[in-house]
Every structure is written in structure tokens, then in C-alpha cells.
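Lecture notes, unit on protein representations.

Consider one protein chain, 436 amino acids long.
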Amino acid sequence: MTFLMQMRDSSAVSDERLPVPFKTPLPQLVRRTLASSAYLLLSWPIHLALFCINVTLLSISLSVVLAPVALPPAIAVAAAGAALERRLIEKFVGMPAPAARPLSRRTGETLPAYAVRAAGSPQVWLDVAWSMIAWIVSTITWIISLSWWAAALAGITWPIYGWALHNRGDNQDLAELIGLHSYPLALVFNVVLGLFFLATLPAVNIGLARVQGLFATSMLCRIQQEEQIKELTQTRDAGRAAESAQLSRLERDIHDGPQQRLVRLKMDLARMERQLGDDSHAVMGLRAAIASTQETLDELRALSKGIAPPVLADRGLVAAVREAAGRSMIPVSVEADLGEVAALPPHIEQAAYFVVTEALTNVAKHSNATQGLVSLQVSGGDLLVSVTDDGQGGAHPSKGQGILGLQNRVRSVGGTLTIESPVGGPTTIMGAFPLI
């Protein structure tokens, strides 16, 4: 079952947006057909020879005495055959077939230790297994491909040789077997049959080559694909952690740097205003500067809290959401039940906090609501964050209102965002964030 699922997943990845054979330009279609046919016709004798060699070596290796002598050559033959198969698939079929990572001998590693480590590699035994069963698949595809070529060529060239075979003694061709004893009828029948096989030859051979290539890559490239997925997952997690740390550092830098200097500037301007007195002509300009400084300070504080407020890093998501609800222009209650979850991943906390603050901002600006509710729950390995209001409803991503930005932010951490907002309300925005 696992092997079939790997084949299905590999097919889904490699067949995505593939060109349909009959929609391909004719010269390219001819090249692909010839390349696929070459792969099918070449692979069977290679696979058969590989099987004959390895079945002999593996049979010998069943002996405890001869196993150290026969098993290494069997592994080497399988690895060489697998490497050749990958090159054939990439060259003739045009499918990605990443090469296996070589198991290099480590510094100071003894030869027996290296042999044991190599023998413990899953890819080694997948190569060996493939060398034992590949000929079965290639035999089937080889027979079908060769038969299709033979039928196509025999049919369209029948006018050249058919006269010598039709109605000659006890010889009966296909046309005579189905009752077409007249030479003109037999001629038309065989040519039409040959044209049918010729017309379907590209689809059959390209399809067979891809099926055989998918079978091979599902075994020969399985470990490489798993390693790539693991590396991408680790890279994604590292990127998320770095982003979370950078956002927290940015908030603290804003708080400790420009925000403090603006506070100091406001205080200096206020002191100058008191020194000048109300009769000075410059006092109006100072008051305007003080007001502008206060507005800039308020905007900077709001920006820093929207990035990653200190309470989020110090006390967690629930405390940060309660603080954001307390700043809302309408009464907002908070319900939180995180169960036994001790701590949430930082990138999940920041994304969930972003959803809550942006949703509350939209409620204040667009909904005409009188009250709201924020719910935080952990269910089935997901963090569920919902913001509900009793406003006028009608929220939709096509209307803007920051909803598209919410969807992108939730999607960036692997979550989903759903919106229920019928006209007349109420509106519920729910984000589901995977914790696993």
C-alpha cells in the first residue's frame, strides 16, 4: 500500500501540467514518440540482463560462506543499472530522475564499517529490488510497443507486399479470416488498420514510457524525494523561526530606539513651549510640532504592536489577544481554551495574533458592530482562532477590507481561513493553524 501511494504521489508531482500528446506540435510529437519508443525497446534487454546477473549473484549470496563475495557485486550491479535507468528516463522520457547521493567513505572509516553502513542504506536495497522486478514491467511495455510499431508499419506498407500473400494457397491473412476475400477490400482494410495504429502510436508509446518511468522513479528516486521533502521542511521551519525572531527583535528595536527618541523630542518641545510662554509667536508652531510628534508616536506604537507586541513573547497568545481586545473601539470578549498545549510555535502565535488584530480593525472600520467575540481553541491538532461580530455582514475577499492579506498570512504558515458573512450579519472569520 505504501509503495502504491508513493507511485501515486510521484505521478501527481511529475504529471502536473503535462502537455497532451495530440496538442503538441507535430515535429515535437514525432521526437517524443521516437524517444519514448527507444526507451521502451532499449530498456527490456537491459533489465533482462540485469535480472539474470543479479539473480545469479543473489542466489550465490544465500550461502553464508559466499555472501561476502557475491553480495557486493550484486549491489554494485544494481546501483549501476539504477544509474543507467535514471539517465535513460531523463534523456528519452523527459522526466526528472535525480541521481542517488553517493555514500562516500568517511575519514578514518574502516572498510568493513563502510560496507555495513552502505548495506544499511534503504536506497541500496530499493535498487536491488528494482533490478529483480523491473524486467517484468519492461517486458509488458516492450511487447505492446513492438506490437504497435509492427501493426502500424505492416498495415501502411501492405500495398507493397500484400498482393504476394493474399489468396495464396493455404495462406490466410487477417482480412481473409474476417471474410474479406477481395483484394481491394483487403487492401483498404489493412491500410486503414495500419493508419489507426500509426495515429495512436504517439499516445500509446509516450504513455507506456511515462508509466514505466513512474514505476522506476517511485523506487529509484524515492529516498531522494523524501530527503528533499525533509530538507524543504527544515528550511521552512528555519525560515519561520528566523522570521519570528526578526519580528520580535524589530518590535524591541522600535520600542527602544525611535519610539524613545520621539518621547524625548516631545518632552523637549513641551519644555520649550513652557519657556516661551503663550505670548510668543513661535508657540503655535511648537504646539503643532508637539501634536505631530504625538501622532507619529501613536502610529509607531500601533505599528510595533501589530508586528509582535512584547506581551506576545512574554506572556503568550491569550494575554496578547486579551490586550488587543481591550484596545478595541467596541466591547470584545475573549474565550480561550488551549487545553494541555504548553506553548505554541512562535510563527503560529504571530500569525494568529495578526488575524485577531486585523479582524478587530476591520470590525471597527466596516461592520457597524456593537460587540465582538474572539475565540481561541485547540482541536484535533489545530489552533482555531475565530473573530465574530454582530455587524452588518457582507464581508468578502473581493471587497478588499484586508481579508486577502489575512488569507495570505494564514496560508504562509500552512493554515486555512474561512469567512462566513451573510448580508445582515453576523460575520465570523476563522483561521485554522496546524500545530503538527
